[in-house]
UniProtKB/TrEMBL annotation:
The keyword Ribonucleoprotein applies. This is 60S ribosomal protein L23a. Residues 310-322 have a biased composition (Low complexity). One of its GO terms (molecular function) is structural constituent of ribosome. The chain crosses the membrane at residues 16-40, 52-73, 93-112, 133-153, 173-198, 230-253, 265-290. The gene is Rpl23a. Residues 32-286 form the G-protein coupled receptors family 1 profile domain. It is found in: Membrane. Belongs to the universal ribosomal protein uL23 family. Its main location: membrane. GO terms for cellular component: membrane; ribonucleoprotein complex; ribosome.
Amino acid sequence: MEKATGPLNISLEESVPFVTILTITGVTSIATNLLIVGIICKNSQLRKVHDLFTLHSSLVDLLTASVVVPFWILSAIHSKTNFVGDVYCKVSATLSLVELLAPAMFLMLVATSRHCSIVDKMAFPRIFSDSRSNLMATMVWLFSFLISIPPHVAWPTSPEIQCLPDLVTNSWYTTAVLSFCFLLPLSAAFYTHIYDIFIFQPERMKRDDSMRRRCEIYAPRGSERTTQKVYFLILIIHTCCWAPYLCVALTQAMNGGEIYYTGNFPIHFVALVVALTGTALKGVVSCFELPHLKESIKKQFGCTERKSKSGASAKSSETSKAQKAKKSVLKGVQRTQKRKVRTNVHFYRPKTLRLQRTPKYPRHSAPRTNKLDHFAIIKHPLTTESAMKKIEDNNTLVFIVDVRANKPQIKASVKKLYDIDASKVNTLIRPDGQKKAYVRLAPDYDALDVANKIGII
């Protein structure tokens, strides 16, 4: 075995497992995060607020997988970190620290936006408007990069932790960064997820008061609750993947920067490899577990679910066929015919084959266009105070529709125009002769979000 010569203190043969793990991590992370970024950008018209923060979190993971992971693969192969100079080394260290801090803050913003949309629906459009959400995302990027600059210019870095996020040299810097930029956002995100998933539920409310009634109306159910659980899982993955590196860094900081080894492997490098695997795990969980992303990916690649017979039904059909064949073999096909009992005085001709018409050319040169299409059915939404109250209290949108339209046509038009499912439609004719439609949305949709999207609010 070759003797180690580089700062990693591992030879080429010893670096094979790490190179393999980092290669799989990099390829998986780049593929999944590129897919997430592409799907969210393509469906930007239907994008929700938390999708914006998910997009930026995936961009951080994609940037890390594209720059940091190849750097450590080449460092392990060359047995040195300065194979292309110090610039790439500093960029890798900066992006590694950004990967630690920025996703934690973006996941905190995801949890906060979803919690605000549940608890205070009236204030949510004002707090998390499009401009303010973009401003928050920009501030997270700037803050993460500014926090990552001091280790390169403010104090000298020991060669043992070169090209790594320096949380060892300056204990004051480490304490401030971990307290305010990592632990504080994680604590807020954990609290909001636990409250929304486990506490803010009707079955958890013992007293029959206003809070219980509010839970019955606004508590996340179905796909919304599944989405909340998936974001909670992503938060846990990010925390657990970076926990070993933080523990090693704090231990080294308390012991004066002493480096620990497991055999020939430096522990801080092993912990960093574990932390970088989080970029791939988060991307895989987001692609295959988030309901709206999973449906968009299936639709993008044309993977529609096909209904097939179950094994039990197929087996029963085969059994019935075998029984019929056995009966025909034992009794034969030719059987004695019974005399038909006549109970009616009328005789009718037997029903013969009547083929359908197969015209060779159309009888009309151009078919008549449908004048009552979905654009004509929905005239405009109502924005009166009573309509706003229906949106807030009953999860119901109010529209002025064509007098000739019926309830199924109104329901289909709302689905086609706004891509929302309605559970029930009620109509009435106003004294001025116009028809008003009350469209109650399905439990998976929030009327305030839909009204904000289509421009009622």
